[in-house]
Amino acid sequence: MSTSIQKSNLWHQKRRRLIDNIARYGIGFGGLSVIMAIVLIFFYLLWVVLPIFSSAEVHTNDSYIASSLESGNTILIVPEESGKLAMRLTNDAKAVFFEQSNGKTLKVIDLELPSDEAVVDAQLVGLTENIFALRLGDDQIFFIKLSYRVSFKGDERVLTPRIEYPFEESFLSFDNSIKTYSATLDEEKLTVSVMQQDHIIKLYRYEVEEGDELPDAETVTEVESQTSVDYMLLDAQALWLYLANKQGEVSVFNIIDIEAVELVSQTKILPPNEELSELKLLIGGSSLLSADQHGDFSQWSIQRDQSNNYFLNRIRGFKNDNKIIKIQTEYRRKGVLLLDSAGKLIIYHTTADNVIAEHQLIDSSVKHFALSARANVLIVEDEQQQISITKIVNEHPELSWNALWDEVVYEGYSEPDYIWQSSSADNDFEPKFSLVPLAFGTIKAAFYAMLFAAPLAIMGAIYTAYFMSAGMRSWVKPGIEIMEALPTVILGFLAGLWLAPVVESNLTGIISILLILPPGILLFAILWQSLPKQIHYRIPDGFQAALLMPVIAGLVWFAIAMGPVIEHLFFGGSLISWMENEFGIGYDQRNSLVVGIAMGMAVIPTIFSITEDAIFSVPRYLTQGSLALGATPWQTLTRVVLLTASPGIFSAVMIGVGRAVGETMIVLMATGNTPVMDFSIFEGMRTLSANVAVELPESEIDSSHYRILFLAALVLFVVTFIFNTAAEIVRQRLRKQYGSL
Amino acid sequence: MIDNFKNWFKSGTPWIWLNAGAVSISLLLVIGILGMIMVRGMGHFWIADVYNMQYDEGDGNPRVVIGEFVESAEVPDELYKEVEGKNKPAGLEKVERWLIKSGNRDQASADFQWIYAHNIQKQTAPDNLIKLERLEWGNFYGYLNDVQENEKVVASSEHAWDELNTRFHRVLEIREKLEVLEKNKIGSINYGLERLRLQKRKLELEKEDTPDNLNKIKAEAQAFNNEYDILIKELTILRNEISRDSANFTISSGKVVNIPLKLMVSIIKPNELSTLSKLGHYILNFYNFIFDDPREANTEGGVFPAIFGTVMMVILMSILVTPFGVIAALYLREYAKQGAVIRIIRIAVNNLAGVPSIVYGVFGLGFFVYFLGGNIDQLFYPEALPAPTFGTPGLIWASLTLALLTVPVVIVSTEEGLARIPRNLREGSLALGATKIETLWYVVLPMTSPAIMTGLILAVARAAGEVAPLMLVGVVKLAPQLPLDDNFPFLHMDRKFMHLGFHIFDVGFQSPNVEAARPLVYATAFLLVLVIVLLNLSAIMLRNRLREKYKALDA
User: How buried is residue B547: exposed, middle or buried, by Cβ count under 10 Å (0-12/13-18/19+)?
Assistant: First the structure.
């Protein structure tokens, strides 16, 4: 009997110990995992951001002899973008499709050409549709279209290549043999520029429709070049025609209106005795890329000067050790692949002004150099018909430290500038990812908020902690602190929909409140103390704040009411238009003043509460000692209390700044969210946080834009974390100090 | 008397007054904001008088303006001259402009208009003026002519009003039936059919699409479709029923407008109402505001889905945040070895409360939605792909994100509570032979519970007011379904939801008709402030009670 009790007791003890242990490890594990989860935030953000700064990877893996695969000389190579297949167009009118990995021929399509002439050359004319122009013989241009049909065999993607004839059997035929030509197809507008005799270029415009035969040319314009022509470049939308010769004399024609072609600029882009080795157009058509015999590579942007004349402006470039012999632009980004005479491949991005990767590609000389649309596969054929495949992993070429934080000369801009312009309708647009305007906006918003909040909150806290009567303090403190819980969306909504219009229509009044309040309060103080003693002894010290409330309300009302009068007298009826006329100061309805006030209100309770605590916890015997030695309360405050509490006030301000920097909803609602770099209090701004809130839902996952927004979040995280940590350390030290006093 | 200004300044008294002024300004700001939200928010539900104004701008084109007075503004003389091209009328001290809500957006282009007060010749508030709230086109003001059934007049002149009321009640009843039919029953069928489609796809993916299984699904789908056919018939009958009646009204321009009763939401004669019945309508309006669905791109109607969504999210968040917060606090305070590392962790946890909420939103979108959600979809919901199930913003991710956002609040508060428990209580328990967990569970935690509650309430208050992160992880302007309904599994954590705070942002800044929606935004803001202030007050009261309690223990 007793053993069974003992046994059950023993079992019971064991169970208790087991539970205790389980709890110990369970809580340890749980606690640590919560802490890990918190740490995870930082590392996850970092993990998303890091690829921005990684450079490109280039691998040349596969190479094989082209001629062993199929007869004919290569005219053009077109890699398929998923990296599986590629097309090789040969001079005997065959489209040979082979696998990129092993060069195995998959399919050969005999082109149905309208004539027996050999294929002389080929060029891409319609990027989105994959339409190519083939020159047949001397004087004919024919069009083919390449497409792949995707089907699934089980889980495997199967690509079936197809060659179509967008304009049936029709072709363009010219009366004389063609020396150089260039063609571009933009939706239903086919533009062809042809040089048949030196200096004379004819521009043809056709209205075409896929599936129909080519019509006669709608317009033919003749352009005469004053210089010889070695390069003839048309942009994808047929807005510009660039003519250039080896000596670097470039003529730019505006062909937007093809019936009134206009020579807008003539520039020599090379020093004397220098020769061009390659000239290409960057995607978008408003930049020329040039390379000369000595390895100088430059980007020239077409832009206007003050008197509205176009000129070519060299906006960036670099010098390579060897001559650059090939320039290949990417089809969807502002990136460039360069090949120099030593066979080195250089991957460069124009906006970022960044050489992303260098790679020894080939030792012999190159005949064909073809890039896939996604810029991930490069196919090179050399003189020995050796084909090699190079895979490129280059996800974020447009991002570099320079592009994010430095001034950049963008296409069409004459000066380097900080610009944030992330969204774009098409690939021609140059994304402008400067974080500077956003960081500037963040600092600006926080600055004006602190300008409004810090004095009010600190002064208020001084009075509340040191002068206010205890009874009133027990109401005032929670009263102001409750504002901290007020959702910022409400403050933002009031600021945007109520305060902004009120400020706009009462600007003079609002500004005069600033000027009228301090003297008004002092005047009241003098009046009050001049009152007979019976009256003002009835209300003891420490109730000034209550007394002042109606006074301040009255003063504010007075200032607002006087606003129109002052405007009428001094500013011709409207301060806003007066500022605009006299000083050129613009006025946004949702501006920094409104944001400063609204965000200030969000920050006041934070600063107030911490400052008040710091001042209130200054030991009484310090102040009493000072007072006993004959100091006035004010002297005691400034020389004893504030000195002792200053670290606490500092940490309050730091935490306030941290809050203002990260605040999202107020800025989102109370500013126009334009990323301007103007410190004027009457202009708006766009902050990092608001930018993230606006753009992240629409950004494509893992794109450059997406990662930059994560970077913005990471910056916010780190900055506020530093501010808060500084504040916390100061506060802890302060606590220790008081402990020793 | 102040004898010597120099001494007065030297003594610092002016500075004290200025500091006092700062407190007063802060207090005035608090009172001003809360007061304004309260007045404007609650004013939204009051039934204002509707005026009939003879209006003549002196251009020989007198007209009648019918509507509610919204606000007045003074026009500076220069502006008046600039806009009107003439000096202000003689004998007028200042020009006043009135904003009138004249409704009838389907007839006039806008439902608000500014008029000059001095041009109003005569202003009356006739008893027979009728105000309609409608399902579309906003409010309507006019005089009732007659009531029609199938385009035949059944009542006119003085009988019309009573007839309209009776028939309107009939419409309300039918509408209720329709709602049950459309939303609940047909909604269930659609939900069921979608589930079957997914089941079928799942079978295909798992290569178990045997004829047997497929037939089962087909049979079920057939049952749903049969049910649907029956319901559709019922629906058609009800829709015909509800379209039976209409009424003719004369509007301010003198035009007669026919309005079907099925479009009406409420009908009143505002000027006829006594103050008491206005009060009744006030309460009714408030009730409708809370329990109705929004209409007209959220600018009218109620905010029920937003309240529901906010509450659901906050509840889920509380369920997540409390255990984790408490466990982390227990670990930090009771189990971990106190040292430099723990001190650093504590500072870090403290600081996380100050990290901008948008950062949590970014993390939530990247990690929870795209990473976790994406993987969950791959593993458990391949049948729905490429349409995401959990790989898209939704209720669960919003709750998780906010739980992460508020966990520091709970940790800090719980730790504070744990620190306040006197040592001797623990030691007493341990001395009696209790294990550590028993001491914690039976002695310490019960005494800490108010602190945990305080932390939780503060967390809830913060979560309820947060908007920025939610915009990224699950809140939408209009959610077609509530996250909780009678379709299995009842709680749909993958659904997107509406939220009061986002509602304010959306209606106030992204709606096509901000002016009309403004009162509603104020009302919503008032509701949100009310909830949050109450939560905070209760947290403060709990904290005070806690302090009192342990003062006694210390002694």
Answer: exposed
| CB burial of residue B135 (10 Å; 0-12, 13-18, 19+) | middle
CA distance A529 to A535: 10
> Three-state secondary structure along A86-143?
EEEEECCCEEEEEECCCCCEEEEEECCCCCCCCEEEEEEEECCCCEEEEEECCCEEEE
Kindly determine whether residue A552 and residue B25, on different chains, have CB atoms separated by under 8 Å.
yes
DSSP-assigned states of every residue in B241-289: HHTSEEEEEE-TTS-EEEEEGGGEEEEE-GGG--HHHHHHHHHHHHHHH
Q: Are A169 and A211 in contact (CB under 8 A)?
A: no
When CB atoms are compared, the residue of B26, B347, B351 closest to A480 is: B26
CA–CA min distance B115, chain A (Å): 19
Residues of chain A contacting B367 with CB distance shorter than 8 Å: 40, 44
CB B370 within 8 A of CB A727: no
Residue of B nearest to A687 (CA): B358
B464/A724 Cβ within 8 A: no
Q: What is the distance in angstroms between the Cα of A421 and the nearest Cα belonging to chain B?
A: 20
Instruction: Provide the token pair at A67.
Output: 């001629």
CATH of the domain at A587: 1.10.3720.10
* Domain contains A591: yes
Q: Ramachandran region of residue B60, left (φ > 0), alpha (ψ -120 to 50) or beta? A: left
Q: What average pLDDT does this structure show over A513-534?
A: 86
> How far is it, in rounded angstroms, from Cα A203 to Cα A206?
10
pLDDT of residue B1 exceeding 50 = no
For residue B335, the SS3 value is: helix
A-B Cβ pairs (cutoff 8 Å, strict)? 314
Per-residue 3-state assignment (H helix, E strand, C coil) for A350-362? CCCCEEEEEEECC
Please name which of B168, B161, B176, B157 lies closest in space to residue B244, comparing C-alpha atoms: B168
Which tokens in the block code for residue B239? 């829709």
Residue A203 lies in a domain: no
Inspect the interface and report whether the beta carbons of A522 and B18 lie closer than 8 Å: yes
User: Shortest CB distance from B504 goes to which of A32, A489, A658?
Assistant: A489
**Per-residue model confidence as pLDDT tens digits over A410-445:** 888 878 888 888 876 667 788 888 899 999 999 999
Q: List CB contacts (< 8 A) between A623 and chain B.
A: none
Contacts A459 to B, Cβ<8 Å: 18-19, 21-23
Indicate yes or no: CB of B25 within 8 angstroms of CB of A525: no
Mutation target among A19, A438, A473, A490 for the B interface, most CBs of B within 10 A? A490
Residue A46 lies in a domain: no
Average pLDDT, chain A: 86
DSSP B134: E
What phi and psi, each to the nearest 5 degrees, are found at residue A469? -70, 150
Across the interface, of B19, B327, B362, the residue whose CB is closest to A713 is B362
Residues A239, A254: Cα–Cα separation, whole Å: 6
Which residues from chain B sit within 8 angstroms of residue A655, using beta carbons?
354
Integer CA distances (angstroms), B130 to A58, A711, B91, in order = 76, 58, 36
Residue A294 lies in a domain: no
Could you list the residue range(s) of the whole structural domain that residue A456 is in? 436-740
Give whole-number Cα distances, A17 to A339, A424, B433, in Å: 73, 65, 11
Closest-CA distance of chain B to residue A436, Å: 19
Split into its structural domains, chain A has a count of 1
DSSP A53: G
pLDDT in tens, A215-257: 888 778 888 888 888 899 988 888 889 999 888 889 998 888 8
Whether A86 contacts A97, CB under 8 Å? yes
**Could you report the predicted ipTM of this complex, rounded to two decimals?**
0.88
